[in-house]
Design brief:
single chain, alpha+beta, 2 helices
Length: 94
């Protein structure tokens, strides 16, 4: 399956390189998209879990890399607890 890499800018202006095992992530995240942190977490979870299920449909097992990526995103998000106006931007989709 084609891997999609995407860069996100966190509220503190740090950039994180992420990846999805499926192009289905493009149905959830778009280059230039700016969303609140809670919305980004919800969209990322839905997109990466859908990507993992696409892998399951094709190969018979879920994609651990998609789950790992989601865990990395969720861990980073804890840095911004209490930031009421926290916004995440998708700055690049490969």
């Amino acid at each position: 399956m084609p891997v999609v890499r995407f860069d996100v800018m966190w509220p503190d202006a740090t950039v994180m390189r992420c990846q999805s095992p499926s192009t289905v992530i493009r149905n959830f995240l778009h280059e230039g998209q700016r969303v609140s942190l809670p919305e980004f977490l919800k969209i990322s979870e839905l997109g990466l879990m859908t990507a993992s299920e696409r892998v399951r449909e094709k190969y018979g097992f879920a994609c651990s890399a998609a789950i790992d990526q989601l865990e990395i995103i969720l861990a980073k998000a804890t840095d911004f607890q209490g930031w009421e106006a926290a916004v995440v931007q998708v700055i690049r989709m490969d």
